[in-house]
């Protein structure tokens, strides 16, 4: 099963989209990293200003090592920014920092899709790691019920990816609006920031497509075995 050429054929659209999305992200990030903010503020300062503008308090902004390792920790109220974002004054830094601040605003507002996504995280992690083993055992032991159980578990990963899409799109939308309304960037700069955030959004679309295609492959193989 793991060496089935049909599996890679199924995933080809997702793989191609993921590769293109990563290329766009790196290109947009590189270009925007070379353009300094007219307001001369860092990513950390931009995140703080976006949160203040939204009336969100109690969020700790920290620096974390890694390239584009920026993330917000729901529930813990911690916003972590990579070195290239935390202390940099580029438009790329401002856009990414504002996006993560958008997640903090979602957390504060109890944004529905984010609440659901947070509830799905443990199940999605189990589904991603355990489903392959369960399905492989099902095929190896010729136990159709075990295969179906594995597919059901993997479906949780697909559900997580589907719920994650509106969460990420909404965070980017909040980021762009907050940066413009707070006059942290000009209208001309908004186009550069939007290019970075739109490219990043494609990576989530690619991940969702890949998980859906993988699920369809499993269902197709299970139907054949049945």
Provide structural commentary.
The model has no long low-confidence stretch (mean pLDDT 92). It contains 7 helices and 3 strands, in the order H-H-E-E-E-H-H-H-H-H. It has helices at 5-33, 43-54, 83-86, 91-109, 112-140, 144-181, 187-225; strands spanning 60-63, 71-73, 78-81. It has one domain. It is elongated. The protein has 226 residues and is mainly alpha-helical. Helix 4 (91-109) packs across helix 7 and helix 6 packs antiparallel against helix 7 (187-225). The protein has a 3-stranded mixed β-sheet with strand order 1-3-2.
Protein structure class: mainly alpha
Number of strands: 3
Biggest beta sheet attributes: 3 strands, mixed
As a percent range, the share of helical residues equals over 70%
Instruction: Return the string of H and E elements.
Output: HHEEEHHHHH
Q: Number of DSSP helices? A: 7
Q: What number is the mean pLDDT?
A: 92
Total count of domains = 1
State the shape.
Answer: elongated
- Span of the ends, CA to CA: 15 Å
Which spans of ≥5 residues are poorly predicted at pLDDT below 50?
A: none
Rounded to the nearest angstrom, the radius of gyration is: 20 Å
Strand numbers in spatial order across the main sheet:
1-3-2
| Percentage beta strand | under 5%
């Amino acid at each position: 099963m793991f060496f089935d050429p049909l599996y890679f054929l199924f995933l080809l659209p997702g793989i191609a989209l993921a590769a293109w999305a990563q290329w766009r992200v790196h290109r947009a990030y590189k270009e925007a990293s070379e353009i300094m903010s007219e307001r001369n503020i860092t990513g950390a300062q931009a995140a703080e200003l976006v949160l203040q503008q939204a009336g969100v308090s109690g969020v700790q902004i920290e620096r974390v090592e890694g390239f584009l390792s920026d993330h917000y920790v729901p529930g813990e109220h911690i916003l972590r920014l990579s070195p290239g974002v935390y202390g940099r004054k580029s438009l790329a830094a401002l856009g990414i920092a504002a996006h993560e601040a958008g997640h903090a605003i979602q957390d504060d507002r109890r944004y529905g899709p984010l609440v659901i996504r947070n509830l799905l995280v443990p199940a999605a992690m189990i589904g991603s790691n355990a489903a392959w083993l369960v399905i492989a055992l099902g095929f190896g032991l010729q136990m159709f019920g075990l295969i179906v159980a594995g597919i059901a578990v993997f479906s949780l990963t697909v559900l997580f990816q589907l719920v994650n899409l509106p969460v990420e799109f909404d965070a980017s939308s909040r980021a762009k609006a907050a940066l413009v309304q707070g006059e942290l960037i000009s209208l001309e700069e908004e186009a550069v920031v939007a290019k970075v955030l739109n490219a990043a959004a494609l990576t989530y679309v690619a991940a969702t497509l890949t998980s859906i295609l993988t699920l369809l492959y499993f269902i197709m193989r299970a139907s054949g075995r049945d």
